[in-house]
Amino acid sequence: MTLEAGISLGSYQIDRLLGAGGMGEVYKARDTRLDRTVAIKVLLAEFSDDVEQRHRLVHEARVIASLNHPHICTLHDVGSQDGIDFLVMEYLEGETLASRLARGALPLPQTLELAVPIADALERAHRAGIVHRDLKPGNIMLTKSGPKLLDFGLAKLRMPVKGSSLDSATPTAEKSVLGGLFGTLPYMAPEQIEGKETDARADLWSLGAVLYEMVTGRRAFEGTSAAGLSAAILEHEAPALSHPFLNRVVQKCLAKDPEARFQSAGEVRELLRWVTESLAEARTPTPRGRNWAHAVWALAGAAAMGILLYSRAAPVELPETRLEVVTPPTSDEISFSLSPDGRSLVFVADSDGKSMLWLRGLDSESATPMTSTEGAAFPFWSPDGRSVGFFADEKLKRIDLGSGRARVLADAGAGRGGAWNREGVILFAPSQGRELQRVSEDGGEPGLVIRVNGQPRFPQFLPDQRHFVFYNLSGPTWCVSGLTRFTRCQEAF
Predict the structure, then answer these.
(1) Measured between alpha carbons, how far is 455 from 290 in angstroms, rounded to an integer?
(2) Are 41 and 26 spatial neighbours (Cβ–Cβ below 8 Å)?
(3) Mean pLDDT across the stretch 438-443?
(4) For 443-467, what is the mean pLDDT?
C-alpha cells in the first residue's frame, strides 16, 4: 500500500516513505495549508476495515493531541480519505533509539539524560489515562531537543490478526501478537504475554527493559524463538547491572508481578533524577574535611531511595509536617534520630556542661535529658521505638525508654553510626576502622559483617531488614550490602 510521491491526503502532499511498522507506514509530507513539514502515519488496510477500530483510533488520537508534552510527539490531525485512515504528526529530525543502540550501549550519563524525560512523558500520558503498550527503542526518537515518544495509543488497540501464532513469530520481529494484544515481544510485560488485563505498570516494565538495553547494549531477555523469549520473560531474571542503585531501579521495573513494580512513572522519574544528581556530585571535587552534617543528610537521601527500591507496597501519601526544633546548646549538630513512628526525636545536647541524649515528642514544645547517657553520640532507634542505641565511653550502649539506666552492649571505640533491625541485630561502625560489625541487641561479642577499603560510616537498614546502605568516608562512596553478602560500592553515591 506504499503511497507514491505527490499523492495528496487532504491538504497533505506525500513526499517520501520514512519507515514501516506492524500497523502502518510513515511518510514525510508537506502541509500545504500551513506550509510546514509533517509526518503522516497511514494505517494498513487490514486495520482500516474495522469500523470499531477506526472509531477507537479517532478517540485515541483526540486524547493524545491534548497531552502537549515536550517529549511526546505532537499529533496535529487525524483524517480519512478513500478508505485510508491516517494520523498527522510533527516531523522529527534525528534517529530512533533503536538505531543508536545498533552502534552499542550508551554512556551512563547519556542514558540518565534520556531516561528522565522518557519517564516524565510516560507519567504525563498515564495521568491522562493513556497506556502506551508498545514502548521500545524504535518508538523513541532522539532529537536535538531531547527524546520524543512516538505511537501513543496505537498499541493499546486490540487487533486480531489471522494466521498469527506464538510459534510462528520471531523474537526479532517488529510486532508480535499474543492473546489479541499488540506489542513488541522483547519489551512486553509478563501480563501482556499471558493475555491478562494490563495497566500503566506494563509500560514501566517496558521502560525497565529499554533502560537495561541502553546501559548494556543488549536486551534484558533473550531467546532463540518467540516461545523461548516468552519463557525467559515469564520465568527468568535479567542479569544484574554493575551500577547498584540503577540496577535496583531497573530490576524493580522488571518485577514479574505488577504489584511489586513501581506504581507510577513519576516514582521512576524521581529516582532517576536522584541517581543523575548523585552521579554529578560524585564527579565534582569535594573539599578535604567534608563535614559530618553533609554525610548524614546525604545518607538520609540514600535511605529514602532504599525505602522506595526495597518496598513492595504502593506508596502511601502522608500529611506533610513541618516544625522547628530549638535544642539546648550543643557542639554536635548531627547526632539526632527520628523514631520509627515519626513521633519522637532523640538528639545530643549539653546539660550542665555535659553532652547527653535528650528526648522530645514532636507534639511537645520541650525536651527532656536522658539520664546515664553522658558523652553520647550518634543515637539510633530500635524498630519498636522503645529503646535507643548510642556510643559513649568507647562503648556501644542502649537505653530503654523509662528505665533511666543505660547498659553496655559491646566495645566500639569512637563509634560512627549504628542501625537496628527487627531481628534484633545491631549493625555499627566501630572507631576509625575499616569494618562494619554486628552484635545482638542484648549484647555480646561483636562479629564482622564486612571489611572495606575505606572507613564505613552511618549504616542504615533497608525495609527488607537484610540489606543496608552505608557511607564510605574514604571514597567518598555509597555502598549497598547484605548481612551475608557484600555488594560493591559505587562512586556515584
Answers:
(1) 14
(2) yes
(3) 93
(4) 85
* Cα distance between residue 142 and residue 17, in whole Å: 19
Task: Please give the positions annotated as active site.
Answer: 134
Distance between CA atoms of residues 444 and 487, nearest Å: 27
State how far the Cα of 410 lies from the Cα of 394, in Å rounded to an integer.
Answer: 9
Query: What is d(CA 51, CA 45) in angstroms, rounded to the nearest whole number?
Result: 12
Q: 326-490: which CATH architecture?
A: 6 Propeller (2.120)
In a 3-state reduction of DSSP, which class is residue 70?
coil
pLDDT digits (tens, 9 = 90+) for 363-388: 777 888 898 999 999 999 999 999 99
SS3 468: strand
Domain ranges of the chain: 8-90, 95-160+169-281, 326-490
More confident residue, 465 or 329: 465
Using CB atoms within 10 A of its CB, is residue 162 exposed (0-12), middle (13-18) or buried (19+)?
A: exposed
> Does the domain spanning 8-90 belong to CATH 3.30.200.20?
yes
Q: What is the pLDDT of residue 134?
A: 85
Query: For the packed helices 244-253 and 292-310, what is the interaxial angle rounded to 10 degrees?
Result: 20
CA distance 85 to 70: 26
Q: Which CATH superfamily is domain 95-160+169-281 in?
A: Transferase(Phosphotransferase) domain 1 (1.10.510.10)
| Tens digits of residue pLDDT in 9-60 | 889 999 998 877 656 788 899 999 999 999 988 876 666 666 666 666 676 6
Q: Tell me what pLDDT residue 128 has.
A: 82
Per-residue pLDDT, averaged over 310-317, amounts to 52
- Cα(412)–Cα(397) distance, integer angstroms: 9
pTM above 0.70, yes or no: no
In angstroms, rounded to a whole number, what is the distance separating the alpha carbons of residues 22 and 184? 10
Do the beta carbons of residue 52 and residue 129 sit within 8 Å? no
Cell 537498614 found at: 461
Residue 151: Cβ-neighbour burial (10 angstroms; 0-12, 13-18, 19+): buried
Half-sphere exposure of 278 (CA within 13 A, CB side): 25
Provide the grid cell at 206: 517496558
Q: What gap in Å lies between CA 261 and CA 208, rounded to an integer? A: 10
Contact status, residue 123 vs residue 266, Cβ threshold 8 Å: yes
Q: What sign results for the dihedral spanned by CA atoms 101, 107, 108, 112? A: negative
Rg of the Cα atoms in the chain:
28
Between CA 335 and CA 357 the distance in angstroms is: 9
CB 451 within 8 A of CB 434: yes
Q: How many other CB atoms sit within 10 Å of the CB of residue 441? A: 17
